[in-house]
Amino acid sequence: MVKERFYKTEVVPRCLTFKRPAGTSRGVYTTRKLWEVRIRKEDEPSVIGIGECAPLPDLSCDYGVDYEITLSKACLDLEQKGHVDTESLRHYPSILFGLETAMRHYEQGGWRHYDTPFSQGQAGIPINGLIWMGDYKYMLEQVEEKMKEGFRCVKLKIGAIDFDRELSLLKHIRAHFSAKEIELRVDANGAFTPSEAMDKLKRLAEMDLHSIEQPIRAGQLEEMARLAAESPLPIALDEELIGCNAPDEKRRLLETIHPQYIILKPSLHGGISGCTEWIHLAETILGSTPEQPKWWVTSALESQIGLNAIAQWCATLGNPLPQGLGTGEIFRDDKHTLIQRKGDTIWFTNDL
């Protein structure tokens, strides 16, 4: 007997090309592999839900040689149950994110996932201007471009070149703009060793920075807890959250380190449902409030489909901080145009 299926799913692999090589802590990306999940019903073939599963090699906890097999099984499970089994997908955040947002797209009947001013095209989301890793000249060019474009928050990825040269970039910004005019964030991606980290944090703090993401590599809980307690510069966790998927693990991590901020990336940190758990824990453990949130949302090199889903959800949260969301401008061959940047904000356009 053939078991009745609630939905019909289709998985479509895609490979996008960056407009220019993207330097990250895991090397330089020239292409981006991802999988689109498409959901339909047999009796309503014209109604579709599309989500994006986009794990990052050597970073995502669910990326591996059997990724497509796991994704296919998750899709079959959705077909048979009629809903996304979030508990069974806790340890597969990029798959969970893709299926959650595909269902949201299907249920809402379009790319407008929620009823917010952002989803209505009436308001934008403020974002930070991202300075990609590279040599000094390239990073300086980006800094000057972001300053001309009027960004009020700029984030520099550091740890790729000489530390003193990176400090000079920060000094260059501060020579033109005070902390009240431009908020500066840095992301070390775990580049510092525990023995040198405090000295570097003190020197960075002289630049009147907002925060530093992941100063030392993930997994050194005692050292990170010491830095979070003693650093003159607020510390935000990013990679530290990857692979920490169960509620008790999340609680233990935040209670142990007690960072000043956490960075939430749905594709890496548990999908929409998992990141919502992180937010609730930040409220109870870190003292996060709507007026002074201890977290913000960041995208992770998704295409327009994934970026739109993250931005749509982010807009429901009311976080006043500049978010780390992409601009939708990084790929040559992204076929959708859902998110566009205007100055230092992103807007939903729904222009297909």
TrEMBL record:
Cited InterPro entries: Enolase-like_C_sf, Enolase-like_N, Enolase_C-like, Mandel_Rmase/mucon_lact_enz_CS, Mandelate_racemase_C
Single GO biological process annotation from the record: amino acid catabolic process
GO molecular function, one term: racemase and epimerase activity
UniProt KW keywords: Isomerase, Metal-binding
The keyword Ribonucleoprotein belongs to this UniProt entry's keyword annotation: no
Domain (Mandelate racemase/muconate lactonizing enzyme C-terminal): residue spans on this chain: 136-234
A Pfam family the protein falls into: MR_MLE_C
PROSITE patterns membership: MR_MLE_2 (PS00909)
Name of protein: Putative muconate cycloisomerase
Organism in which the protein naturally occurs: Parabacteroides distasonis (strain ATCC 8503 / DSM 20701 / CIP 104284 / JCM 5825 / NCTC 11152)
